């Protein structure tokens, strides 16, 4: 059995982290999971071209899924921090960097690491 390459490890980890956040938000329907798979396929090519970008893949997949959901369904994930005003989505920061977090730009706070949204929103541990 061949060992799993660092590229594959990064892609599998990114998939798992984003799926955990989708499950926490109770939006992990089959068509949404397909959006995750599409994002992973696109990012596979990207990280093959730039292997040093492997630590950035989780944040990029999260952003890709967020963008795809916005086009099809609306904002995700909604901010659990701001209790008043118009509902708004969290952002992924850094936009291109390791250790991505969901942040509320309006309040200026980190809400949770990508993959741990459930712990921050009461959706259960992720």
From TrEMBL:
Q: What is this protein called?
A: Uncharacterized protein
């Amino acid at each position: 059995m061949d060992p799993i390459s660092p590229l594959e490890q990064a892609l599998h980890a990114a998939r798992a982290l984003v799926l955990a956040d989708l499950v926490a938000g109770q939006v992990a329907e089959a068509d949404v999971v397909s959006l995750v798979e599409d994002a992973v396929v696109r990012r596979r090519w990207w990280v093959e071209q730039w292997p040093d970008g492997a630590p950035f893949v989780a944040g990029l997949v999260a952003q890709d899924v967020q963008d795809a959901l916005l086009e099809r369904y609306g904002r995700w994930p909604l901010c659990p921090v701001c209790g008043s005003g118009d509902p708004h989505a969290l952002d992924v920061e850094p936009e291109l960097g390791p250790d991505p977090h969901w942040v509320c730009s309006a309040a200026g706070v980190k809400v949770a690491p990508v993959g741990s949204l459930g712990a921050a929103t009461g959706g259960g541990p992720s």
